[in-house]
Amino acid sequence: MEKLLFINACVRGPEISRTYRLCRVFLDEYAAIRPGIAPEEVDLTKELLPCYDGAAVNRREKMIDDSKTDDAIFRYANQFALADKIVVGAPYWDLSFPAVLKAYVENICVRNVTFCNTPTGVAGLCRAEKLVYITTVGGYAGKFDLGTEYFKGICDMLGIKQFESICAEGLDIETNDPLKIMETAEKEASLAARQF
Q1: 129 close to 163: Cβ distance less than 8 angstroms
Q2: CB–CB of 91/12 below 8 Å?
Q3: Domains contained in the chain, CATH given
Q4: CB 158 within 8 Å of CB 114
Q5: Which DSSP helix (H) or strand (E) runs through 116?
Q6: Can you give the pTM of this predicted structure?
Q7: Quick one: 57 exposed, middle or buried, by C-beta within 10 A (0-12, 13-18, 19+)?
Q8: 146-191: per-residue pLDDT in tens?
Q9: Which residue in 73, 88, 181, 191 has the most C-beta neighbors within 10 A?
């Protein structure tokens, strides 16, 4: 059965987060047309993600060299590597996304699990063909939407061929209608889910 992984970095929580609301529209539409496929959610607001310092990186590299990648510390990397499709939801913060999502990326970028080094460069090992990155912005990110660009790069590195982003922008601009912006983004999310 298909494995759909939802990385939830919507740190304001489901009651307040507009990004989560947009993710929910996408996931509910996806479930409606593919009954029986429930996303496996990693709620980053509830996970105790280690941030790697030099000593921790050295320990991790030794475990990789000793082929101990089935250890619990590689849980996130193994889960990510085995997903068929991936949804990442994160609000636009400080030009990218909340820090907890960067900590997650540090935990999934594991040599010989999600990527490997070859004589010609890095090769991705992930099974997923598609990743969608969902975000919301109070203003307008424009050329400073570094979170989207970052995840494009992560997809390239880890071998995920199709990347898509869904973004609702301008939600906190006084002259804008946030309900209308969200409604338009929700329609985009529904359509994207049907084609995902």
Answers
A1: no
A2: yes
A3: 4-195 (3.40.50.360)
A4: yes
A5: strand 115-118
A6: 0.95
A7: exposed
A8: 999 999 999 999 999 999 999 999 999 999 999 999 999 999 999 9
A9: 88
